[in-house]
Write a structure and sequence with these properties.
- By secondary structure, the chain is of the alpha+beta class.
- The chain has a domain at about 5-50.
- It has helices at about 5-15, 20-35; strands spanning about 80-85, 90-95.
- The protein has a two-stranded antiparallel ribbon.
- A hairpin with a 2-residue loop joins strand 1 and strand 2.
- Helix 1 (about 5-15) packs antiparallel against helix 2 (about 20-35).
- The two termini are about 55 Å apart.
Length: about 120
C-alpha cells in the first residue's frame, strides 16, 4: 500500500469517526481510483447528520444455544439396496436415509435423486 493511499484511508477513517460518512465514502472512492488531486472543500451539508438519517431501535442480544441430541437413542443412517426394472432392463440403486429423517413423517421427506450414468 503506497503512502498516498494509506493517508487517504487514514483520513477516511477519521471522517467516519466524526460521522461524515458521505465525505468518507467519496474519499475512499478517490483513493481507489488513484485520484491524487486535492480534495474539494466539503460543503456545509456534506456529511452532516440529518435527524431523518438516525435510526432508533430497541435491540437485545438473543443467546442461541443449540439443544444437543440425546446420545444412544439416535436412529442410525441407513442404506437400503433396491432394484428398478423397466422394459426388460434392471438398474440397481442404493437408498440413503439419514438419521434425522426419523423426526419427519415419511410422506413429508424430500427425495434427492442423483443420476451418475455409470453401469
Amino acid at each position: 500500500m503506497n503512502t498516498l493511499f494509506s493517508g487517504l484511508m487514514r483520513d477516511a477513517a477519521q471522517l467516519t469517526r466524526t460521522g461524515r460518512l458521505v465525505d468518507a465514502t467519496q474519499l475512499i472512492q478517490r483513493a481507489l481510483r488513484g485520484d491524487t488531486s486535492p480534495a474539494e472543500a466539503p460543503t456545509t451539508t456534506s456529511g452532516a447528520v440529518v435527524e431523518d438519517d438516525v435510526i432508533e431501535a430497541q435491540v437485545r442480544v438473543v443467546e442461541v444455544h443449540p439443544t444437543p441430541e440425546p446420545r444412544g437413542s439416535e436412529a442410525a443412517d441407513a442404506w437400503t439396496p433396491g432394484s428398478f426394472t423397466h422394459q426388460g432392463r434392471s438398474v440397481d440403486y442404493m437408498l440413503f436415509v439419514p438419521a434425522s429423517a426419523s423426526a419427519q413423517p415419511a410422506a413429508a421427506r424430500p427425495l434427492v435423486l442423483m443420476l451418475h450414468g455409470c453401469t
